[in-house]
Amino acid sequence: MSILSVRTKVTACENVVACELSTGSALLNLDTSRYFQLNGTASFLWDSIGEGNSVQGLCDAMAANYAVEVDDCYDDVIALLEAFRKAKLITIAD
Question: Taxonomically, which superkingdom (predicted)?
């Protein structure tokens, strides 16, 4: 079960840098020296995190940008945020 809820605020960790690629973006965690390549959809979510959104705000942004229902993208957004959290790319606060 996820520790994230719709009210959870998500922010990028300070020691993570991002750069745009032709197919998405790349992230580098300077603390762990690990890098990650994101596709266009994950890159959009990452950029939305930079705006200091809640999980609900991220789902709303994804739904608006990709013409899907908010409820349909919720599980996918949570799964990606959990992967970001485990990779120490984001911090969360309720």
Answer: Bacteria
How many structural domains compose the chain?
A: 1
Do 38 and 23 contact (CB within 8 A), yes or no?
no
As a whole number of angstroms, the distance between CA 86 and CA 64 comes to 27
Please report whether residue 3 resides in a domain: no
Average pLDDT value for the chain: 91
Helix (H) or strand (E) holding 34: strand 34-39
- As a whole number of angstroms, the distance between CA 24 and CA 37 comes to 8
On whether residue 1 sits in a domain, the answer given is: no
pLDDT for the residue 94:
65
90's tokens: 């984001």
